Inverse folding.
């Protein structure tokens, strides 16, 4: 019997532009599961079930805390609409 992490869904696409490769990852992460696999030019798009006041929620759940730590220790930027945080 598997865990929720066995249900992570990832679509990975490499896009070549000007001699460089950009990785685009479309991710659905069930609650209490995480998926991070990246290189220099990576774009994450997905439903991470991560809540944080940083992007409009009232509380921070475990996944939201992991995303905050990841963002604060990397050069990645979060693009979101704080007024419509569920999308």
């Amino acid at each position: 019997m598997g865990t929720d992490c066995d249900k992570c869904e990832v679509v990975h696409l490499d896009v070549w532009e000007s001699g460089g490769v950009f990785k685009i990852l479309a991710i659905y992460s069930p609650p209490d599961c995480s998926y991070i696999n990246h290189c220099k030019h990576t774009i994450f798009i997905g439903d991470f079930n991560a809540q944080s006041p940083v992007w409009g929620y009232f509380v921070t759940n475990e996944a939201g805390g992991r995303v905050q730590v990841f963002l604060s220790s990397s050069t990645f930027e979060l693009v979101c609409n704080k007024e419509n945080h569920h999308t």
User: Anything to note?
Assistant: Residues 1-5 have pLDDT under 50 and may be disordered. The first strand starts at residue 9 and ends at 17. The longest helix spans residues 62-72. Helices lie at 62-72.
